[in-house]
Amino acid sequence: MKKFKKCIGIALACSMAISLAACGGGSSSSSGGSSGASSGGASSAAPSGEVKTLIAAHTLDTTHHVHQGFVKMDEVLQDISGGTMKLDIYPSSALGDEEPVLETQSLGGGTIDLSSPSGNALQPFSSEFLTVDFPFVFENYDQVWKFYDGEFGQYLFDSLEGTGLKGIAWWDNGFRNLTTTNKEIHTADDLKGMKIRTMSARVHMANFNALGAAATPVPFAELYSALQQGVADGQENPIANIYGNRLYEVQKYIMRTRHVHDPQPVLMSQDSWDGLTEEQQGWVMQAVEEATQYMRKLSADEEEEKLQKLQDNGMVLVELTPEEHQTFVDKTKDVYKEFESEITPEGLELYFKAVEEAKK
Ligand code: EAX
To answer: How far is the C-alpha of 332 from the C-alpha of 67, rounded, in Å?
Structure first.
């Protein structure tokens, strides 16, 4: 399995190198003059006068707070490095889906330096990341950021050691909500037999199967057309993603289930990181920290506004009563048990302790 994945990763790295060259990414993009500042130069620091360009990839649209986070990071990076470092940002799955992008990053070589995937895309690299998808754990952002900025967030990043990936920040995707094409959902029973698109994340799939639906994994880039063609009867995503991908054109109802919070960590290729000077590493960390504060605030601030825009565009908001909401909680309360044996005892203990702390 491992070997097989590596082959895919290498094939992807090659095809991405070609597509990057075709897009004019990498070497030709330095604003500071030299054409030598490229994605291929990760193993040595850029000589003076050259601009070190980091390639950043994500799956979201340009209105999304993840994209805006990278834009902010680029601004800060250019500013504090005196114009010697910058980002080239590839949104909307331009360089591929989250897991293949991570595979490419993990192989090094600077084809892709940075990405910000859903936390669960890291599960093939560290099974400790299965915990991030456990349903109905956090109720608000205070709890979420206390949790990820604390000991367990660091533990998850540490668990990536040796994978070729380095976690440098915890960004936000958002709390996920259910939408459907033509059926109003009030209780878990209403979901029986419905095909619900999920990410290919195993806990998400188990969650929707436990609710009586048939979890149907589809890559994010294909979600709109999958819904349009009736491949699935509904899907689940944070409000910003539903809005940014115009899912209101193919979905009628939105239920505020907030069934799981989805962290969107920022990952750097370890090889790219190791190729930076200490000073450059310091700039990257300062830039990503400023971008983190910025994007978290943007995400929270824009949620209600984007929910209103979904309704302005014809979606019907279904607010669940506490009793209705509880039916979803009850049906999924044992989902985490299916995955416990894959997580280290040390990790599980730390996880439960950190959840309790975050909710105090
Ligand atoms: O990580 O696939 C999804 O539904 C995710 O929310 C998206 O790719 C952002």
So the answer is: 32
- pLDDT tens digits for 231-242? 999 999 999 999
DSSP strand pairing (114-115 vs 52-57): parallel
- Which CA distances in Å does 43 have to 217, 272, 309? 37, 7, 45
Q: For 291-316, how does the pLDDT look when each residue is reduced to its tens digit (9 = 90+)?
A: 999 999 999 999 999 999 999 999 99
CA 341 to chain centre: 25
Please check whether residue 234 is in contact with residue 250, taking contact to mean a CB–CB distance below 8 angstroms: no
Ligand 1 centroid – CA 220 distance (Å): 6
Q: Give this prediction's pTM.
A: 0.88
β-pair type (52-57, 85-90): parallel
Please name the fold of domain 2-354: D-Maltodextrin-Binding Protein; domain 2 (3.40.190)
Pocket test for ligand 1, best of 98, 122, 197, 299 (most atoms within 8 A of CB): 98
Rounded Cα distance, 24 and 22, in Å? 5
253, two tokens? 């109802």
